[in-house]
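Lab manual, section 2.4: Encoding a predicted structure.

Procedure: take the sequence of the chain (134 residues), apply the prediction step described in section 2.3, and record the output as structure tokens. A sample record is shown.
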Amino acid sequence: MTGSSSDRPAGGSPGPASERSAALGRSGEGIATDWYEARGYEVLERNWRRREGEIDLIVRKGRAVVFCEVKTRTSDAFGTGAEAVLPAKQRRIRRLASRWLAELTPSSGRALVDLRFDVVSITAGEVDVIEDAF
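Recorded output:
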């Protein structure tokens, strides 16, 4: 039986398909990081995780702090990456952004920032950044 739990490596490790997906995601996050850095943004966090979820990339330029969701696809056969960032995901990212800001010390100037939420959609190596996506 292909795909059954008995086909998984010992310890329940993810199979080759999910490993490829994770590698594709890491590659996309690297491309997104390069895109922002080339435009003068400073990377504050990559893969910032808390129990409630993860923010792929947090960057800053001037007063703007940008929370980025990165979606990487090999093709658009099942839609673009941006189309996968549904309202529930948007709410989760907003909650995580609020938590990230709350964890900053007051002296870090958290009250002096402008927030933005971007979606970076990478399809077959082509980068589409939707600034202020939600």
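Check your result against the sample. Residues 15-130 form a domain with the Trna Endonuclease; Chain: A, domain 1 fold (CATH 3.40.1350.10).
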